[in-house]
Specification:
Chain lengths: ~675, ~675
Amino acid sequence: MTDAPAHREAPDAEAVPAVPSAPERAPSRVAVERLYPEIDGGRFPAKRVAGDEMVVEVNAVADGHDELRCALLHRRDGATAWTETPMTSLVNDRWRGSFPVPALGAYEYTAEAWIDRFRTWRRDFERRLEVRQDVAVELLVAAQLVGAAAARTTGEAARKLHATSRALLPPVDVQARIKTALDETLLGLMDEHGERANVTRYPRTARVMVDPPRAAFSAWYELFPRSASTKAGKHGTFRDVIDRLPYIAGLGFDVLYLPPIHPIGITHRKGKNNAVTCGIDDPGSPWAIGAGAGGHTAIHPKLGTIDDFRALVRAAGEHGMDVALDIAFQCSPDHPWITEHPLWFRRRPDGTARYAENPPKKYEDIYPLDFESGDWRGLWEALRDVFLYWAEQGVHIFRVDNPHTKPFAFWEWVIAEVKRAHPEALFLAEAFTRPQVMYELAKVGFSQSYTYFAWRNSAWELRQYFEELTQTELSEFFRPNLWPNTPDILTEYLQAGGEPAFRARLLLAATLGANYGIYGPSFEKGEAIPRAPGSEEYRDSEKYEVRTWDVDESSAMADFIRRVNAIRRENEALHNDRSLRFHPVDNEQLLCYSKQSADGESVIVVVVNVDPHFTQSGWVHLPPADVGMPDGAPFQVHDLLGDARYIWEGDGHFVQLDPRSTPAHIFAVRKKLRSEREFEYYF
Amino acid sequence: MTDAPAHREAPDAEAVPAVPSAPERAPSRVAVERLYPEIDGGRFPAKRVAGDEMVVEVNAVADGHDELRCALLHRRDGATAWTETPMTSLVNDRWRGSFPVPALGAYEYTAEAWIDRFRTWRRDFERRLEVRQDVAVELLVAAQLVGAAAARTTGEAARKLHATSRALLPPVDVQARIKTALDETLLGLMDEHGERANVTRYPRTARVMVDPPRAAFSAWYELFPRSASTKAGKHGTFRDVIDRLPYIAGLGFDVLYLPPIHPIGITHRKGKNNAVTCGIDDPGSPWAIGAGAGGHTAIHPKLGTIDDFRALVRAAGEHGMDVALDIAFQCSPDHPWITEHPLWFRRRPDGTARYAENPPKKYEDIYPLDFESGDWRGLWEALRDVFLYWAEQGVHIFRVDNPHTKPFAFWEWVIAEVKRAHPEALFLAEAFTRPQVMYELAKVGFSQSYTYFAWRNSAWELRQYFEELTQTELSEFFRPNLWPNTPDILTEYLQAGGEPAFRARLLLAATLGANYGIYGPSFEKGEAIPRAPGSEEYRDSEKYEVRTWDVDESSAMADFIRRVNAIRRENEALHNDRSLRFHPVDNEQLLCYSKQSADGESVIVVVVNVDPHFTQSGWVHLPPADVGMPDGAPFQVHDLLGDARYIWEGDGHFVQLDPRSTPAHIFAVRKKLRSEREFEYYF
């Protein structure tokens, strides 16, 4: 929005009965098209967070040379009255406006344009004056326009307009009438009360969904509560997790994400390292949900009680952290629903249950749910109630397991249902599948999404992928959440690259993505041994056994993570993805990119050496104007990681990075560089 | 369309009453999105010509791993039944299909996708067989699916499906059942009769407007009939134009375009060289339409009678040419409408008529029409009747003067009205204005559009502009018509470049654009003297006086034009704009581009020297695969202008062009190059 925009309550088009006009008006001469953002013709909302300014653009054109004006209309979803804000003309008949979105939930918006006869007249009038044309008749036209505006309004404005209309007529002196006609106050009055001719409303209404700020900027830390004990071999509890909160919060994370915390099935339970048979003490995979002790709303008895869980949520809050739960809609053969709701599970023609499979792979410890059964409504409502149950326990962030194997329509419905009761709720989609399916899940409502980041390791891959995510319409609805590792993903890059690789990947995740996360303490410990060569599974994975971690907040890695997270928090440039821009480097092992805050005050330039083995150097091509600096003047870049300061001048800047000491620079661009001209006695 | 597609009559979604389903089905799992082309959410039609294949793409995705199928639905505008053609899966969940558009007028299309349970089952079944899983139960599933399909149909198909269903059950031997299940005939039957689960129709219907082939491929020749006499000083007639037809047709043009042929106003008539006062013999500008002898449906008495005009249209037809008329909706102060329909013209508050102006410029010999008056309907209908009158005289191509100063809604209405009676009608928009206004006119119905071509003279400008026109969505509705010169535009490039400049510009217009035109005989004569330095107006312009031209069909320029037009006609690659691709050249004075026919059989590569003064040489970067040649093998390019043949091999090709002899190569790429292997005794 421009400064102090004129807000004006506009009646809803549908709510006001059409005034029969005599004679019938010709169709409007104004075309309003190409509203942006508008996802799939308004079918899906764009996404923003509370406090954002929602910027909207639209095309508006008419025939001829008339001056147009354009207004953005917005309202809270469900409201009837529109609030109007003026839009500004850009180049090429494009207009831009904005409105603030302070509240959670959906807003609607559209645009309207019309011909402004007074501004058209005024522009032509000025041109006529320039060439000293006789303007006597033109002043009569102005008097007509102003008089008509007066007749259209009441009160003080009407009085002023009437007076002005008379002041534009003889016998008033021509020079005085010209002055009156060009008066800025008159222009303001006419903007407000002048006729809006040929008003055209954009044919559709678009929507924006407003989430809490954490949807756009978050640092996640995933851990297995059962491995949170400090005593080797002992099953961890929520109380153990509470004890670890100072460590996690100290590293700078703000979302604590727990894999499923429910009772684990016995039948077909997997053993250590995903063995088909399990030993008597094997705890099983937390994703094989449900046993005698309950299903998706129960807590695994060894983790603690619901009160312990509530205490954990509370304690996390005191450390500035939200607890995120893993919602995996699938059942172990021992889940209560199997017997209570047989219709919710598919059976084969021989009567046996259809376990999960992606032929030829079989997952016999898991039964998928049938979202299309005769009792689909019963199932959908039960699943909604799972979310609502945990929301009532204080959880409002949900990491959803494999959403791409459940219907889009279900997610659209359930996310809307949960948000209706809990507008602060956030949903992270764990869908490692084809791009269009991932994007569809984001469209139907997921607040954040896992990405292919883990497998994009070279500079050109990262650049290509993140340009797609941030420079296209995707940035309107798909919020990437970047994970260097997860309990399922130990990439070859981490396996081969040692600690330098872990540092480079953390830094890339934390600065390429406003949302990122790590799976710890595995990450801090640099755990990098796969179950087998070529596998991305960990050896002795926590997914199948209880582990114990000796966390160390004074380790070099902890120090590095703490520093990167602090830089993220302190530099607003890193709180968004949409401003991401890449800059050329003449060494393909170096990646350079920048981000800026919406107001341009915070500017960060990152240069990363993606080669974890060798020192790399090269020239970054970064004209000062690309980061908001005046061309031709030197400026300072301050490396927030190493605390060194450099003066950059011109377009090319030399950089050298040794992965063993530091894999990257995170430069804050300092706007002002002092010179002799600022010395007291210079002038 | 793939070979022999299965057409199937699908009922219209709206026409069939919804069958109440018990129990209620879950919402569809399939999402169908991003139909292309679909201009502004289906608000405007795409454009094709009769005989084209209309290619359509769409996204279709579902959760999970089920196999989808997708169909394109199309129908003539106004029909109720859809015709269905299968779409083919591309990468990234994108589907493509096509349908033929043999008839003039509009077609509607949309897409539908569904889950194919049998194909899903079959794919998984093959994977199970590969790892030798027990498939006994899976064969039961197949029997169920086939049995259900049998129950859904009747006749021979039902009988076959019933039999197959039984053959999939014990006691038939398992190996025989596997063979039955994988039988291709069964697959075909199931494709046709198997259940379509989760059918989703794209939410909107898009349209395509089908024009005559000349809308997409035409060569225009503009002349002033009053200058068509061979006797100096004599006012030319339609009969003189008839005498010139063999010359024009011989040059290879197929549209003969005449500036307005109506009586010309006397009041404020402009003199020679646009002088404000005119001499007694000055004929005035043909665009100052209307006098005592009539208005937009009358003929200037000195040009001949309506019968002469009809004779001209007939004679042009005999030479393979259409006559195009200039429709300029504006009136001289002497036009009959001024007195007959005073409401159709704006007046100023002092009662005087409002002549045309774009302040501070005044056009006092012209009154604009008021499209918004109380009698707008009367005016709109009268203007429509102008088109209909000339259409009845055999004219179906209209070059519309300044359409951007009349409402879009008027054009949308009038073009639809004219096409309703004359679906073969074509409209060329002469709008030299801002891009969005030009594009809007194309959207609302103009078949072709003038462009900025005249002012794009450097290689990079041409490349940038024509990539915008042909590589974006614009190519779906905006058909460029390229003019090196017009009676209003004598560019500085032509003024300075001499005959080499005329040749280069003609060749660029004729090969960059499938539609192009010249203003002759001025063009063939190389007329290049402006009225004043810095002006784009001609000295002694035909717009204000009668000229006489001594045309010469054996001139070097005539020969060049004839050759270029013959190459255009003979090479289908040049009949479209959408295939235009530019190729890098290491000399910025050289421009290289290619075009291909839809079937890839005709491939043309053009290299132009845009410098009219100096010989330029350089290396064209053109990997053989870019023009459909196998990489690594040499291929022949045949210069159709100079008749030389070159063997090209690898990616770089040297070119040198002397503007004094020839400004360009127009290479036909020859698919087959003989080698020793084709020699009879080689093997």
